[in-house]
């Protein structure tokens, strides 16, 4: 009888641990400080969708400080930003096949590089603070020129326009042309 009681206790403990881990894993992403956002639009015949987590400025200096220059960044917060196109497109004259890609950026004071990477679904950074971008899986990289925005953009935002997409945050806008 004592052994049956112990066995039931172990089973109940393991079940409780499993249930609590499932609840933790299913935590509502909308309750995160950097909430998930989606930008969608048409560029020619292609539908472009960008899924990202949107951090806030919160009085901080973003580019060149929070997001260092000349270091690859996950182009958002939390999981790596996802760029999806339902048709093949051309970015800076280079072909990008239809599909889903992780979008990374390397900010610079005068020029940015955007990377479209075939690995998707990963967390955006490692415990060391470096991005999870595997250079061997880069499909395409393009250059873009940052510009000063007319007003402060508190929360990181992407906008898909008929000409491409624009990353907006703090007092900076970076347009990327798509055809």
TrEMBL record:
Pfam family, one: DUF2911
Domain of life: Bacteria
Signal peptide: 1-25
Protein name: DUF2911 domain-containing protein
Keyword list, A-Z: Signal
Organism name: Dyadobacter frigoris
């Amino acid at each position: 009888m004592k052994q049956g009681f112990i066995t039931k206790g172990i089973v109940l403990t393991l079940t409780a641990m499993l249930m609590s881990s499932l609840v933790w894993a299913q935590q509502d992403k909308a309750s995160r400080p950097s909430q998930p956002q989606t930008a969608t639009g048409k560029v020619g015949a292609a539908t472009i969708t960008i899924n990202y987590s949107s951090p806030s400025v919160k009085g901080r200096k973003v580019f060149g400080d929070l997001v260092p220059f000349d270091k690859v960044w996950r182009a958002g917060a939390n999981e790596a930003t996802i760029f999806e196109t339902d048709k093949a497109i051309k970015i800076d004259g280079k072909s990008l096949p239809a599909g889903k890609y992780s979008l990374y950026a390397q900010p610079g004071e005068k020029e940015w590089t955007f990377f479209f990477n075939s690995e998707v679904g990963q967390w955006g950074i490692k415990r060391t603070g470096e991005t999870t971008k595997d250079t061997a899986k880069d499909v395409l990289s393009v250059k873009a020129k940052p510009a000063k925005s007319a007003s402060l953009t508190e929360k990181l935002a992407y906008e898909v326009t008929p000409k491409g997409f624009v990353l907006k945050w703090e007092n900076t806008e970076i347009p990327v042309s798509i055809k």
